[in-house]
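Comment thread on ticket #2218

A.B. wrote:
> Attaching the input chain for the structure job we discussed in standup.
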Amino acid sequence: MNRKEAEQTGYTHSDGDRKEQKDWKEFRLRVKLQIGTDEPVLGPGVAELLELVGETGSMKEACGRMGMSYSKGWKIVNRAENELGYALILRHHGGRSGGSCSLTPESISLVRRYRALEERVKKYADTAFQEMFTEL
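C.D. wrote:
> Ran it. Output below, let me know if you need it in another format.
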């Protein structure tokens, strides 16, 4: 019996008993896409951090919105830059008005392509999940 049939009859096969439809749990597939060598260099967290830096112009603000320390944010970005071999963030140092950050064209392209790949993989994974796990 597939999920649709189970919903129509109110039946779940987990314990063989008839149950109310409200007891039916909807399972979802979660896919976390990471790109890297031994350690991930680009994943959902790095992409979000870069997007927030681009939006706010500030590493401090981006880290704050993510609940991450400023030093951890820079550690993540510096590691990714070292692994990739190019700058992700342009650093504009202080003065009276303080510093700011902006994304390099390479960073903007990297995040855009990562998000597109993430969406493509999610669509494929959702379709495969529905085909292979019809009972859920």
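A.B. wrote:
> Thanks. Noting for the ticket: The first helix runs from residue 3 to 9.
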